Amino acid sequence: MPKITPQINPKQHPAADSICGRHPNYNGNVPPEPASPIADNIIQVEEVSKVYSTGRLEVAAVRGLSMNVARGEFVAIVGPSGSGKSTLFYLLGGLTHATTGRVVIDGVDFATLKDAERTRLRRHRIGFVFQKFNLLPTLSAMGNIEIAYAVSGRKEPMDRAYLDHLSDMLSIKGRLEHRPSELSGGEQQRVAIARALVTHPAIVLADEPTGNLDTKNSDAVLEMLVRSNRELGQTVLMITHNPEAAAVAGRILHMRDGQIVREEKGLRSAPPAPAAGIAHRV
After folding, report:
1. What is the DSSP annotation of 99-147?
2. For the whole model, what pTM was predicted?
């Protein structure tokens, strides 16, 4: 297919920033900090709190929370509505600021970055998958994937062999010329996953990725997240209210009242060895 030239300005579309990720070895404007004694932790959260203020009313959504995620882990965070898990997702993705504490992503402390630097870090190192898909309705599935790649800032052409591999894994190869309105909910979410993975992100953050799907499509999406972790070597962190969905992870963190109250092992109780192939190509 010929390379498209998007007719929209990514800066004018809030979805455009949230659809991008990149390989952890990116050598750009957001350099990693020197290695620490826990350098294997790609996500470090240290005594983080997030307080929302409305007039004189203050609500603590996250309260002094600390956690680590090792490189190559699949971690699920589960909790009821109002537990603070969505706020934690936005903190981990750099989509909101912590009131206190530190969020360190792949060696970079979000608090030390200006807004433009934080945006670059998101685009280069994090792939997002949302419950509502966030596909641009005027573009085909392929166009949504291509604009994600364009916004990520990579200089080299998109790896079409890698995209073919993703499309096969996601069973969307014959659907890429269709617009979102012509796709089922499950197909839209699988396109959203391809869009998140095509830039080789170090981390995949998934927020209720099965929330709008039936059982069959939910199982397919969860299987793909497991495969991206196992076969592509990506660190996956999934937010969900569904304990059955959370069970596919290696480690499950239970949240309540803005804190992690319990931890248990999931079905994938050991992180995979880093993939030596496609996911780690620079």
Report:
1. SEEEEEETTEEGGGS-HHHHHHHHHHHEEEEETT----TTS-HHHHHHH
2. 0.78
Burial category of 123 from C-beta neighbours within 10 Å (exposed 0-12, middle 13-18, buried 19 and up): buried
Angle among Cα 258, 263, 269 to the nearest 5 degrees reads 135
**Can you tell me whether residue 211 is helix, strand or coil?**
coil
Under CATH, what is the fold of the domain 17-27+39-110+122-280? Rossmann fold (3.40.50)
Question: Residues 150-202: pLDDT tens digits?
Answer: 888 777 888 999 999 999 988 999 999 999 999 999 999 999 999 999 988 99
Residues 6+ apart with CB under 8 A from 27: none
* Inter-residue contact 64 to 259 (CB < 8 Å): yes
Compute the distance between CA of residue 23 and CA of residue 237 in angstroms, rounded to an integer. Answer: 16
Phi, psi of 89, deg, nearest 5: -60, -45
